[in-house]
Design goal:
37% helix; alpha/beta; 16 strands; Arc Repressor Mutant, subunit A; 24% strand
Length: 275
Amino acid sequence: MLPRQRQTYILERVREDGAARVAELARDLSVSDMTVRRDLELLHQQGLIEKVHGGATVTGGSSLFEPGFVVKSELQLAEKGGIAAAAAELVTPGMAIALSAGTTTYALARRLTEVAGLTVVTNSVPVSDVLYRMGRPDQTIIVTGGVRTPSDALVGPFAVAALRTIHVDLVFMGVHGMDPHSGFTTPNLLEAETDRALVEAGRRLVVVADHTKWGVIGISSIAGLDQADVLISDVGLDADARVALGREVRELILTNPTAAGLAGSPDSSGIAAAR
């Protein structure tokens, strides 16, 4: 394989999967690790990928790129664990809640499997799966239906129509990005429409998003920052972001994740008073 063909293959792999490891690329291309690293360096210099330890990821800042669920589930595990733990504390037995698609809401779903009497509405295939497999028999799981996206969300007219007939106590929403001007966003137009219907179905909106989502802008807005009753993030959020979010959301909770990412606790210094 010529160098240009090899580099094209690497670029396509990174864009398709969201990331690629040097060892896997070397094995699949039957070349040395050093050859792959040289190719990655060239692609990085051209601004086509981002080099990371042991491999490469897609370049940041794309408003359309949407990595798959499996790729995203490997990122910020500790932060998502802490956020999920704090979010679960807002749920009490007998509630009707809704969970959007996303790896953070999936982490939350795993913590809700033992909560009695829950009714959970979701447009997420993984969320519905974990609740069906691991949840209590007295839980009711309602799946919206719709067209499946790379993030394993069910979207489109069927999902929106279902959500417009439903009313829940809390909506837990994961997002692709959050920005002071664009608000909460997603790179998928149909997913944005479905998420907006989710927001309208709830009495209160809880956004769950780790610090890496700050400053990221997807192509379509879901809601303004001021529409969030609660935003749960982590202590990695920088000072400027904390100030901006503190002005807009009604309550800001920053968690301090554990190394294992399996638990976390709210950081009292990161809790803003209700407006």
